[in-house]
Amino acid sequence: MSAAPASTAGLTALILAGSRGPGDPLAVYAGVEHKALIEIGGRSMLERVIAALAAVEEIGRIVVQIERPDLLDAHPALRAAAGDKTLEVIAAAHSPSSSVLAALERLGTPLLVTTADHALLLPEWVRYFVEHRERGADVCAALAPSEAVLGELPQTRRTWLRFRGRRYSGCNLFYFATPASAGVARIWLEIENQRKRPVKMIRRLGWMTALLYLLDKLSLDGALRRLGRLAGAQLAVVEMPFGLAAVDVDKPADLDLVRQIVAR
Questions:
Q1: What CATH number belongs to 11-262?
Q2: Whether pLDDT at 202 is above 70
Q3: pLDDT tens across 17-65, in order?
Q4: Which residues, in sequence order, are CB contacts of 170 under 8 Å at separation 6+?
Q5: Overall average pLDDT of the 100-127 stretch
Q6: Of 51, 61, 58, 117, residue with least CA distance to 89
Q7: Is the dihedral of CA 223, 225, 227, 228 positive or negative?
Q8: CB neighbour list of residue 186: distance below 8 Å, 6 or more residues apart
Q9: Angle, CA 48 vertex, CA 188 and CA 252 arms, to 5°
Q10: Distance CA 33, CA 28 (A)
Q11: 106/100 Cα distance (integer angstroms)
């Protein structure tokens, strides 16, 4: 993999657009052939994400990782959404983590990663994330604190990440800055592979880490240090002041909510 340059000019952005196959429950609910093609406000989710990334000056290339590369040719609006930015398509692997690993091998670093179901994504969110990332970190992730999310969606019900009295929600934005960041993707893959074997997964992460988390005694900084040691990489987060950045479309209720937000 290539080393990270000093600036983000010409940054490559990767959109994870894999689905759960032809029977994807969300695609079935929306009546489309692929989840990424679900329409919201007259545009598909994938088109909306491509357009948001294309409006960010630092991004020079957008790569869609999908198990159906033919969809981009079948839907010209997707290429049009990229404007004058380079738009490429590569095949998705069998899971998000393995897709990211394959993309890092092929595309190098730095690599900005988001998802096709991040249908509300705005250019200013991406700019804020890129501008506020910790420069010495190998990987940065975007998290929205609960107060920002609840300020936008006071009735929302979600599973929070809890760190010593504070609650966060993921924002589906990641910055893989250096070749060492591949270690994080490998740990992610391990966790995905062990999700049906919780004891083995906890043993890998560390019993004390799991206990501290369950007791709400694990700080966010402590969690980043512990995971970083496992991955052989330095990790950091960017706290996003945008509550809606934590909203993605993973189930029918999410789709209904996002359509309501866009229609406001």
A1: 3.90.550.10
A2: no
A3: 988 777 889 999 999 999 999 999 999 999 999 999 999 999 999 999 9
A4: 141, 142, 143, 144, 161, 246
A5: 97
A6: 61
A7: positive
A8: 97, 101, 231
A9: 65
A10: 8
A11: 10
Q: Residue 181 has which token pair?
A: 């960041």
> In the chain, what is the straight-line distance between the N-terminal and C-terminal CA atoms, in Å?
44
Give the pTM. Answer: 0.90
How many angstroms separate the CA atoms of 161 and 226, rounded?
A: 16
State the CB neighbour count (10 A cutoff) for residue 193: 14
Strands 139-145 and 59-66: unpaired
pLDDT above 90 coverage of the chain, percent: 70
Rounded Cα distance between 226 and 118, Å, is 28
Neighbours of 203 (CB within 10 A): 12
Domain ranges of the chain: 11-262
Angstrom distance (rounded) from CA 92 to CA 14: 11
* CA distances (Å), origin 229, targets 204, 224, 232, 233, 234: 12, 9, 5, 7, 8
Query: What are the beta bridge partners of residue 172?
Result: none
How many Cβ atoms are within 10 Å of 251's Cβ, its own excluded?
12
